[in-house]
Amino acid sequence: MRKHRGLAPEDTLFFDPKRLAVLRQAVGDLSWLLQRGYSTKAALTLVGNHFQLVERERLAIVHTAGDGAPRHTPLTFEALRGRTLCIDGFNLLITLETALGGGIILIGTDGCYRDIANIHGAYALRAETEAAISLAAHALKAAGIAEALWLFDRPVSNSGRVAALVNDTAQRLSVPMEALTADEVDAKVKRCDGIAVTADSEILASGVAWFDLAGHIIQRQIPDARLIDLRSPADA
Q1: Residues 71/206, Cβ–Cβ less than 8 Å
Q2: Which residues of 97-121 are buried (b: 16+ CB within 10 A; e: fewer)?
Q3: Residues 46, 158: one domain?
Q4: 192-211: string of b/e by CB count within 10 Å (b at 16+)?
């Protein structure tokens, strides 16, 4: 039986209002440093040590903070009609799996929805995998896209299996989408001639046209998702 992509044992720390207040301060400080040219590693070490953050909290704030707005604002869902999409496969899939499984979803300073997963080359299918793919497929079909190409990192374990699941879903639901495994997925999505579907901050900073499909789906289809907003009032 597949495991759920739910809460990690240490994620209970995100339910402490006092701790959340500290994390929002840390996100503000980290963003300030990034906007002034500090490297992510140096800035995270400085802020993490200052606020005495544990590893999971450091991971959360680096997923939330930003060095400024992406070069382009996100497109609307309506703007996807008739367009070609390049989907950052694991980025979209794991966020939806996490939301469905009751894990923590962070809202970044750029408004994107992100999980706290860090797969490091190892991905395992979860109990929520098929449901996550189905939700994405239904959303793409409703958007009236011309076509979508899901790209999954070839070196990551089980990338071929999950690509096959996407292709099976495409055929079953008659959605104009295809999944492939590839090397250097981030670089390929950055060069997308259509619309990039991702919440990866480095890809967004490249200037590609983009849409946060995971955030769109979570807002409308997963009402019980565990959303943690670490933005300051100025960013929200």
Answers
A1: yes
A2: bbbbbbbbbbbbbbbbbbbbbeeee
A3: no
A4: bebbbbbbbbebbbbebbbb
Q: Is 171 helix (H, G, I), strand (E, B) or coil?
A: helix
Q: Does the pLDDT value for residue 159 go beyond 60? A: yes
Cβ neighbours for 163, distance < 8 A, ≥ 6 positions apart: 89, 150, 152, 179, 180, 181
Q: Are residues 175 and 87 in the same domain?
A: yes
- The Cα 153–Cα 186 span in angstroms is 9
Read off the tokens for 100: 């469905």
Residue with the bigger pLDDT between 74 and 126: it is: 126
State pTM to two decimals.
0.94
Q: What pLDDT is attached to residue 171?
A: 98
The count of domains in the chain is: 2
Asked whether 187 and 216 are in contact (CB, 8 A), the reply is no
Q: How many Cβ atoms from other residues are within 10 Å of residue 85's Cβ?
A: 24
- Nearest CA to 229 out of 150, 81, 114, 100 is that of 114
Q: Is residue 235 part of a domain?
A: no
CA 73 vs CA 68, 209, 232, 233: distances in Å: 12, 8, 20, 20
Residue 189's domain comprises 77-224
Residue 186: what residue type? D
Instruction: Find the mean pLDDT for residues 9-32.
Output: 93
Residue 190 in contact with residue 153, Cβ under 8 Å?
no
Euclidean distance between CA atoms 105 and 166, whole angstroms: 23
Residue 69 has a pLDDT of: 58
Is residue 1 a part of any domain in this protein?
A: no
Residue 163 tokens read as: 């690509």
